[in-house]
Amino acid sequence: MILHMSKSMPVPEPVKNKRGELKSLEKIGATQNIVRLLKYIPGKILYDIPEWTTRHFQQCGDLCARMDLILSDFDDPAYRDRNSIWFLSSIPNLTGFIASVKEEGRRKLALQIIDEFCRDVKPMESSLTSGIIHGDFNEQNILVQQQAGEEEYSVYSVLDFGDSQRNCLVYELAITIMYMMTQCRCVEAYKAGGYVVAGYIKHRELPIEERKILRLCVAARYAQSLVMGAYSYENDPGNEYLLITSKTGWTILEEFWSKSIEDLYSDWDDIIESLEPGKSKYMSSAL
After folding, report:
1. 9: phi then psi, degrees, rounded to nearest 5
2. pLDDT of amino acid 149
3. Is residue 160 annotated as a catalytic residue, yes or no?
4. How does pLDDT run across 193-240, given as a tens digit for each residue?
5. DSSP structural state of residue 97
6. Fewer CB atoms < 10 Å away: N or C end of the chain?
7. How many Cα neighbours within 13 Å face the side chain of 256?
8. pLDDT at 242
9. Cβ-contact 253, 219 below 8 angstroms
10. Residue 4: is its pLDDT beyond 90?
C-alpha cells in the first residue's frame, strides 16, 4: 500500500537494511524487537502546531479525498479479512467496552449514538462505496510543512498506515472531521466539518447516501475514540497519550450531537458555498 501511495505523494516508504531486508529481528537491551527503516519526510505533525486554522481543515479534506482516489485501484488479499475494534464498521462491538465510561450521562450518550449507527448505517454498509482507506487520519499522523515565504504550515502528507483497511470511503471522511474537531479553536468545533467537506469535494463528490449519514458517522467515531480511550486507560493507567481525545472530547461530542442534522448541515452549507461557489445547499439537499 505504501509503495502504491508513493507513486503519487510523499509517504514514509520502507527502506532495505544492509542485509537487503525490509525488517529484521534485533536484540535491544534484554528484548528482541522487530526493526524496520522508513524514509524520512521532513516536517512536523499537525498536533505540534499550536493554532489550527480553517485552511488546515480544508487541506485535510483535500488530502483525504486524494488518498481515496490514489488507492481506488489498489487492493491486496491481506485486507479482505482484516478487522479491528477501531474500525468504524466495528461500532456494534463497542458495547462490550462501554462499562469503562463511568459517568452515566456520557455512557448514555455513547450508547444512543451506537444504537443509531447500528440502526441507520450498518444495514446500508454493503451498498456504500468502499475501498482501501488510511483509517486513522488524525493530528498525530498528519504531516505539515512550512512553504517558502509563508509563516503558516500547510498539510503535506500522512504517516502511519497501521490501521489501513478496506472499508466505506465515507468512514475516512468522518474520521477526518472528528479529529479536526478535537483542537478546533479558530471556529466552533462543529463547523470544522464544513471546511473538511469543502476540501474533500474538490476531488470526490459525496453521493446522497453518504451525505445523509455523515453526521452520524462523525459522532460514532467520536464515541468510539472516547470509549476505547477510557477502556485503554483503565487497563494502562498513567498512559496520558490515551487521554488526548478525552480532554475536550466529551464536551465537543455533546455539543455536536445536540445540533440537529438540519442545523448542522445548514451551517456546513454556508461554509461549503463560501469556498466552493455553486455548491448551494450541498449537504441539506440530501435530507
Report:
1. -155, 155
2. 79
3. no
4. 999 999 999 999 999 999 999 999 999 999 999 999 999 988 887 777
5. G
6. C
7. 32
8. 66
9. yes
10. no
Listed range (129-133, 185-189, 197-201, 241-245) with the worst mean pLDDT: 241-245
List of residues 6+ apart from 96 with CB closer than 8 A: none
Q: Which residue has the cell 512536523?
A: 44
- pLDDT over 90 at 274, yes or no: yes
Q: What is the DSSP string of 31-68?
A: EEEEEEEE----SEEGGG-SS--HHHHHHHHHHHHHHH
236-245 confidence digits (pLDDT tens): 877 777 677 7
Q: Where are the beta strands (DSSP E) in 137-212?
A: 142-146, 153-158, 165-168
* CB of 180 closer than 8 Å to CB of 60: yes
259-274 average pLDDT score: 98
Closest CA to 180 of 163, 168, 197, 204: 197
Instruction: Return the axis-axis angle of helices 192-200 and 169-182, rounded to nearest 10°.
Output: 140
Per annotation, catalytic residue among 136, 160, 269, 270: 136
| pTM (two decimals) | 0.93
Rounded CA gap, 135 and 265, in Å?
24
- All three cell numbers of 209, joined, read 447516501
How far apart are alpha carbons 57 and 113 in whole angstroms? 24
Number of CB atoms found within 10 A of residue 101's CB: 23
Look at residue 252 and tell me whether its pLDDT is greater than 90: yes
pLDDT > 80? residue 250: yes
Please say whether the beta carbons of 4 and 75 come within 8 A: no
CB 181 within 8 A of CB 192: yes
Which triple of cell numbers denotes residue 263? 442545523
- Supply the Cα-derived Rg of the chain in whole angstroms: 19
**Positions of E strands within the chain:** 14-15, 23-28, 31-38, 44-45, 130-133, 142-146, 153-158, 165-168
